[in-house]
Amino acid sequence: MSGKPRLHYVNARGRMEPIRWLLAAAGVEVYGDLLFQQVPMVEIDGMKMVQTRAILSYIAGKYNLYGKDLKERALIDMYVEGLADLNELITSNFFQPADKKEEHLATVMDKATTRYFPVYEKVLKGHGQDFLVGNKLSRADVQLLEIILLVEESKPDILAKFPLLQSFKAKTSNIPNIKKFLQPGSQRKLPIQEKDIPRLMQIFH
Amino acid sequence: MAGKPKLYYFDGRGKMESIRWLLAAAGVEFEEKFVETKEQLEKLVKDGDLLFHQLPMVEIDGMKMVQTRAILSYIAGKYNLYGKDLKERALIDMYVEGITDLMQMVMMLPFSPAEAKAKNLASIEEKATKRYFPVFEKVLKQHGQDFLVGNRFSWADVQLLEVILAVEEKIPAVLSGFPQLQAFKTKMSNVPTIKKFLQPGSARKPPPDDNYVATVMSIFNLN
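^ Those are the sequences you sent over. The predicted structure of the assembly is below.
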């Protein structure tokens, strides 16, 4: 059996998307996107892994995207968990009732610009390096880029007040593996469309 | 400055309880600073002590750590409760994440509106006995060892014991179909550091009561 990791999920973003991003950044080819009515499952290295965070941690550890020691790991974990919270807020917007969506989205954008993005802008300003932790690409950088692009889909000018995040976005997008992932034909999934929502609601809610 | 870890949270279980458990299981003494009012929380935010303006926060090894999972991972790594390699870590992570999902349901129960409480409790019982406990029962049965991963005490064991006890507080007979988990509960409860934590006078917090709920609601303006 091929050694490529095999991803099981629905054919949409959701909780599998951060995993696709991280595998792509690590230059790992994947095959297969089977339709399962389950939380993400990834067959990798003889394991059937579940739980998004566990899967991401394993990939990051295996492909040296998790810092050089416990303290760098701690920083990466804090940054990543903050991004996961923001991600959760954004994706929860799709499942809001129609009359609440706009207000909810405004709240989410507000949190992005007052609670989350300032943190990462400050980190980058503080050390002046290209990457968030240890002057080296880590899962935190991959996840930050993913979230920036996600938020921009709802509000294209969201980085207006964050010059360092703008240059972070440009630099990180040009890393070869990531650049490849951002091109059409990669395994990156499209934004959730209105028409997908009934199907996803049926599967997950 | 190195010294004891200092925990910033409300005087109650919530998200900090798992951290108290893990530090205690690792035999690490810690201090606690209880946040009792909105003003105290706002001061921590204003002083720049809370990275994402949220608690829990733990001062440890010169860091002001936030995000429960990040804190727990750090403690587990530091005190050798995270397996011996990447694959054992992966197992521990999977188990802990599953347990966290169940723990979250238990944690939110006191905050349910009165008319939803019975339904939420029934949901906890169902998930515990159909989705989560069977997994751990099977793991223990298959390898026949005392601990979940690598024949060695880990973060996963601590968290499993914590959630078993938390669910039992609400559903006393919940382990009736799970003989392996019953034996596990007994053995883990007798690990010296854990035994000490389970005794009165430890840092373990009591089950949430109305007072705790009222405090949290008032701090977050949820009335």
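The mean pLDDT of chain B is 95. The interface with chain A takes residues 51-53, 61, 63, 65-70, 73-74, 77-78, 86-87, 89-90, 93-94, 96-98 of chain B (CB under 8 Å).

Shout if you want it in another format.
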